[in-house]
Amino acid sequence: MAVTAAILAAPGTLVAQGFQVNEHGTCVMGRAGVATPKPCGDGSAVFYNPAGVAGMTGITTSIGVTGIYAYGSFTDDYTSDETGLENSLVPVPHFYATYGITPQLTAGFGFFVPYGLGTKWPVTFEGRFNGYDNDLRSMYFQPTLAYKLHDLVSVGAGFDFVLGSVELNQRLDFSEQLAPPPAPAGTTLGQLGIPFHTDFANVNLKASGATGIAGNFGLLITPGEGVSIGFRYLTRSKLDYQGDAVFDPVETGIVLPAGNPFGVPAGTSLDLVIAGLGLFDDGALLADQGGDASITMPDQVSVGVAVSPTDAVTFLAEWQWVHWSLFNELELVFDNAGTKLIEENYQDTNGFRMGVEWIADPRFTVRGGYLYHEGAAPPETVTPLLPEGSRNEFTGGLGVRLNDRLHADVAYQYIHQNKRRGRVREPDAGTAPSVELNSGLYKFNAHLFGLTLTATF
Question: Cβ contacts of residue 150 below 8 Å, gap of 6+?
Fold first, then answer.
C-alpha cells in the first residue's frame, strides 16, 4: 500500500508565516515602533538603529518583556462553523546593555526575537491536517559598536548570532492515502468509502539548534535643530534546521463494513488493519525519522524622520520594507519520506508607522502611535499555521522616571488584521497552491502588553 507523507507539505508554511515581531523595547512600542530616526534612551537602539547608541555615556542596561495574546477564528464556507484559536499569552523577552567607551565610541549588546510566535487550534479543527499546535522562534544575540563621526552624524553596526527552533504538530488523514491493489492506481481510500477526515496518525516535527549569522547597520543624521533622520538595515540570515519527525498512530474507532477496500470480513476494526500494514515500522515511510531544511529569515530596511517643534513634543514617522519574497519555495529532505519542494510565493511587504512623544514633566513621558503593515502571504498560501495578512495597529505608552537611575516604561498595542480567505488543506502532491483550495474566512487579532525597566550608572 502506498502512503502519502502529508507531513512534507506543512513545515514551510509555518516558518514563512512566523509573525514578524517588532516590539523589542517598550518605549518604542508605545510610539508604534518608530525608532530609526530617534531611538529611545534604554539601549534598544542596538536593535532599532545601532547608530543611536553612539554618544551614550556610562552604563545603561534594560530588560523587558512583551506579552502577546493572539486570538482569531476560521469560519467554514459550507458549514458556517466557526472554530477559534486557543492561543495563550506568549512572552517575548528583550535585553540591552551599552557602555560609553569614549564620548564618541559606545559598545552595546542586545538580545531580541524578531521572528516568532505560533498558533494553537483545537485538535478537532478541520485544519489539523495542515497543523494545529505550532511554534517558531528565531533569537538574535548582537554585540554592537557605534561611533559619533560628527555632532550631526553617527554610525553603528552589530553582528548577530541567530539561534532558531521550530515545532509543528499535525494529523494525517487516512482517506487521502492511496488504496492497495486491485484498486486502480491513484485511487484514494476516500473514494472507496473511508470517511473524509479520518485521523490515523499524529506527527510531531521538532527542530532546534539551527544557527545563522546576520548584520545590523545604522546611520543617524541631525541636519538641523529638532530634526533627525535615520536609516537601518538588518541583513538576511540563513538557518539550517535539522530535526526529527515522530509519527504516532491515532485510533480511528471505525468498524469496517462488508465489501471494504481491504477485503477483510465485516466487523473488522480499521485500527487492526492499519496496524497490520506496517506503516510505522522501522524504515517505513511513517517511521520516526530525521529531516532537514534551510530557511532564510528576510532582510529589513527602515528609514524614518523625527521632528521636535518644542523640547517636549516629538513627531515621528518611519517606513519599513521586509524582503519576504526570499521565501519563494522550500526544500524539505526526510530520511524515509524523501524530498519535497513546497511553493510559498511570498511577497515583499511595506510598513508605515507614525508616533508621537510628549514629555509631560520631568517624571512622565506619554506616547502614542499608529501603524499599517502589509501581509506577506499571497491569497493561495493563507493557512491555519498562521493566517497573517495586512493589519492596522494602535499603540499607547507611558514612561516613568522612578529615581535618578531607574526608569520604567509600559505600553499597550492592539493589532487588527484584515479578514482573509484561506485554506485548511494542502494541495495534492505535485500540484501548485491555488485560491481554489480556499474554503473559509480567517480572522486574526492580538493584544500586546509591554514592560521594560532601565537602569543607568
Answer: none
